[in-house]
Structures are given as structure tokens and as C-alpha cells.
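Chapter summary example: a protein plus NAP.
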Amino acid sequence: MEFTGPAVFTAVRTSTKRKTLSLIGLRSYLETEVVSKCLNNSVSVSAILENTVALVAFSLCAAIGLITVLRSMLSLMSSFTRHFLRAPYNHFQRYAKDKDSFVVVTGGSDGIGFEICDQMAEQGFNVCIISRTLAKIEIKLKELQVKYPKIQTKAVAFDFSKNAKISDYKEKIGDQLKDIDIAMLFLNAGHINIGNFHEMEDQEIQDSIMINSMQPVFTMKVLVDQMIER
Ligand SMILES: NC(=O)c1ccc[n+]([C@@H]2O[C@H](COP(=O)([O-])OP(=O)(O)OC[C@H]3O[C@@H](n4cnc5c(N)ncnc54)[C@H](OP(=O)(O)O)[C@@H]3O)[C@@H](O)[C@H]2O)c1
């Protein structure tokens, strides 16, 4: 039985039945090649088989390598497009009702939270910051108002580590914000404990749980009804 290389590989792309046939063909092809090379060149069968296995293994590795490189290039290109070419996503267009809509940001007086406030104010949202230190919130809101004179601002001073009940959240956050249109709520305030758990003070662990775990759930709970209504 005579088989040529391309014929074998073309057959591989067809139906399952033909795939089985082509595999038999591939084997016969290899056997024919092996025998004829052995006869013609006195090369040992095992040497030729080793070469063939090495060739197949090399092709597989090359194919996997090529796919990996292509995937990395695609991901790099999409990240480049997202960060440098595409315009920022317009949350105001999508979520604001009108120019009176607010974003509410817990822990908005610093770090990531303040960056969120800045970017949302740039898009046209009014900004409400809920965090611990009133003086700090006021300084940051002033900064935003200088940069974006058209926006309204609101400050809510609330210590998440000192208020453990939903009723506290309702009274000091929910009731204060019940008349504004909340388009987006960022539950960003957080506290990171660094060090060995067994060396941490009880108070530190307690504060951390209250800020990181209770704050997002309780704040959401006291604001969710008015957000659903809108
Ligand atoms: N930065 C990072 O690399 C990183 C990495 C992973 C996750 N995060 C998370 O991202 C969030 C923001 O991080 P960040 O680095 O931007 O934080 P940050 O700069 O330390 O700012 C924290 C903000 O939360 C407020 N806050 C802290 N404790 C509070 C409390 N008990 N009650 C009320 N407000 C309180 C702070 O207000 P005061 O200044 O008035 O206290 C401040 O506005 C956190 O949840 C953090 O765990 C950050």
C-alpha cells in the first residue's frame, strides 16, 4: 500500500470513519518508509522510529508554543486597546437619571475610593463620600468642587468600626441619603491587617470584620430599597 504524506494529513481532517482509515494509512506509510529506508540505507528500525517520535513531539511542542504566543499577543493587544485607544466607559450616560444623580462611595476620602470619586465627578456625577473623618472628607470634596465646579457634594462621617447594628446605619446613613438619587454605590472602605494572626489584637480583628464584612452588607441594606425604586 502506497501513501503520500499530504494525502495522509488531508484525510485526517475528514469524517471520523475516514479519520480511522487515515490513521491506518499513516501507520502503513510510516512502516513503508521505515522498511524502505532500512533496506536502502541500512539504518536501524529503532533509529528511524526514534526520529519520527522526536519529529512528532517537536511539532506538538511548536504548535503549543505558537498557540501560547498568539494568545499572549491577543491579550496584550486587547489590553492596549482597552487602556489607550478606547474611550472610558461612560457610566453617567448609562446610570444617571439626570444632573442630580449621585454616586456614593464608602471610604471615598482617600486612595482608590477618592480616585473613583474623581473619575465619576469627571463624568458628571454628584459625589457623596461616607468615611470616618469629616474634616478629611470636606477637604477632598472641596478639591473635587474646584476641579468640577458643576457638581454637588455630600459628606457623611461614619465610623464603620464603631457601629455594629443595621439600625445605626439606617439612622446615620440611610436617613441622611433618602432624598438623593443614588445611581451607583461603591462599597470600597476597607481595612487590611498585616502580620501573624496569632499576634493580632482582638480589637484589630474585630474592627477588620466590621469594616470589611459588615460595612458592605449593612450599607447596601439601608440603601437598596431606594436604588430598586429608581
Ligand atoms: N491599595 C491596595 O493596594 C489595595 C489592594 C487590595 C485591596 N484594597 C482594598 O481597596 C479598598 C481601598 O483601599 P485603599 O488603599 O484605597 O484604602 P485607603 O487609602 O487606606 O483609604 C481607606 C478609606 O476608607 C476609610 N476608612 C477606613 N476605615 C474606616 C472606618 N472604620 N470607618 C469609615 N471609613 C473608614 C478611610 O477614611 P479615613 O481616612 O477617614 O480613615 C479612607 O477614606 C480597601 O477595601 C482595601 O482593602 C486595596
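Key point: The radius of gyration is 33 Å.
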